[in-house]
Amino acid sequence: MAFKTLQAPPSLARPDSCSFSPTNSKSCCYQPKPHSRPQARIATKNRLHSSPVLKCRANPRGRIDEVVQLHQDHQTTEIPIVLHQSVVFPGQTLQMQTVEFRYRIMMQTLLLQEGHSFGIIYSSRKDSRMADVGCMVHIVQCDKLVNDRFFLTCVGGDRFRVLEVVRTKPYVIARVQVLKDRKSPDSSNLGSLMQQVEGHLKDVTMLSDKLSWKLVGDKARQLSRMHSPESFSLVVARLFVEDRSEQQWLLELDDTAQRLVREERYLQQRSKYLAAVAAIRGAFGQLFCNEKQ
Q1: CATH number of the domain within which 208 lies
Q2: Same domain, 104 and 216
């Protein structure tokens, strides 16, 4: 296992914990898709960093719109890439620990640079090919452990699109451009779309609480901190969409309205499923009570 994802402490902003086992770089097969609207807003600078312990100022509790992001139009950058078995979104907080030798080398290299960022791309266990779109993560704290391992606390930044794989050894380096949502012709309807999605979120929350399933009410309260439709749609995809392939699809969309429409359909189907489960459970519960009488 290259990285081991760990549970973040309560002092961080509700991180998502998941199994992280990047695939072997030898099996990395990538053919980038043409993209008609490349947008790049990342600039890289190199500067010597003498300390093996990195503590960057960042506020994981802040709004997703307040995540520190680098903006340089019409530029590309080369960044290290880690293949992850979960989809990482902007604003997400996660902790991980390096294990494999190649990723220890990656971290030692990053500590000599100013950016302290790398890219995470979803790759399922069934398919070793990495996706076209991933998420930049910024290291906000890095502690060196024994055996040259590193304990990282990261916050998701910009989405990016891979243009080209530069090399695969000792770890993957790719040339990327930042991906931002384009202006949608349906932008005037974004407010109503957000309200419809929020309505389905309330239904899903109520039914989940009724079934005593994984609580999402606390997650729903996070959405009150989101201001832009784009950030709102990305948080919904991260917190309420459980299918990783669907999450990746939503991450790759560059149209906020399309993402909200797709999320509305997903949540509507989810609420119907939960309602059916609740009805079946209620029927069996009533039958059990009648038999006891």
Answers
A1: 1.20.58
A2: no
Query: E strands along the chain, which residues?
Result: 3-6, 54-55, 77-84, 93-98, 117-122, 133-144, 150-167, 172-179
Q: Which helix (H) or strand (E) holds 104?
A: helix 101-110
| Domain total of the chain | 2
Domain shared by 253 and 288, yes or no: yes
- Cα gap 251→156, rounded to integer Å: 13
Domain of 126 in residue numbering reads as 3-179
Per-residue model confidence as pLDDT tens digits over 221-278 = 556 556 689 999 999 999 899 899 999 999 999 999 999 999 999 999 999 999 998 8
User: Can you spell out the DSSP letters for 178-220?
Assistant: EE-PBPPTTGGGHHHHHHHHHHHHHHHHHHHHHTT-S--HHHH
Q: What pTM does this model have? A: 0.71
The model's pLDDT over 197-208, given as tens digits with 9 standing for 90+, comes to 988 988 888 888
